[in-house]
Amino acid sequence: MLNSAKPTLGVINAEPEPIKLDWPATALLIIDMQRDFMEPGGFGETLGNDVSQLARAVEPIGAVLKAARDTGMLVIHTREGHLPDLSDAPPAKVERGAPSLRIGDPGPMGRILIRGEAGHDIIPELYPLDSEVVIDKPGKGAFYATELTDVLEKYGIENLLVCGVTTEVCVNTTVREANDRGYRCVVISDGCASYFPEFHEMGLKMIKAQGGIFGWVADSAAVLEAMKVSTT
Ligand code: TIU
């Protein structure tokens, strides 16, 4: 049948300029939406943070996640955390600062930031489907010491829609890693959050400044609009 080709291109009204994406070469990358960062009693709170600051990102991420699932886009979730024996946790990370509980200590959601514990899991609202990719990462960046590069190459991914927490820590680190590896990153502004609103703002500005030195920034409405209105 004529004109039956699936639309494959979309234009996101992003900053610093609109970006055209080939949807089959685009993945949604959701960074560390774990109970350890989002809920009281987890790693984020042990560092002295107000975890309620992060809740605002859940609904926008949920909307883009639904659109990604509806359109068959590859969805990748990441989780920051460590092996139970802490063999992948550098002492420089574990011993840092004066948290109320350290990585590996028992907390109300199990051992802090340890794989397999309740606190390490992704929040129910954004829980991965069995068909989706989950990347466990020991660092802030999603490329360091993970199989993410292999996954992206396997699926022919060139572009990443990036969201999650926190804006200036794991999101920014991952976007910088991805940018150096040649991926186009569009960061979903309202799908990211920080314990520090001013760091969220500056974290997004740093990405899109200088002509998009690390990538592009768009809100979830612009991303959803582009996913809806595609051209061949
Ligand atoms: N502390 C903080 O803002 N973030 C992290 O430790 N990890 C992530 O951002 N996922």
From TrEMBL:
Record keywords: Hydrolase included?
Answer: yes
Give the source's domain of life in one word: Bacteria
User: Which protein are we looking at?
Assistant: Nicotinamidase-related amidase
Among Pfam families, the record links this protein to: Isochorismatase (PF00857)
Q: Which InterPro entries match?
A: Isochorismatase-like_dom, Isochorismatase-like_hydrls, Isochorismatase-like_sf
Organism name: Bradyrhizobium huanghuaihaiense
Q: Which UniProt keywords apply?
A: Hydrolase
- Domain Isochorismatase-like, by residue range, is 26-218
Single GO MF descriptor: hydrolase activity
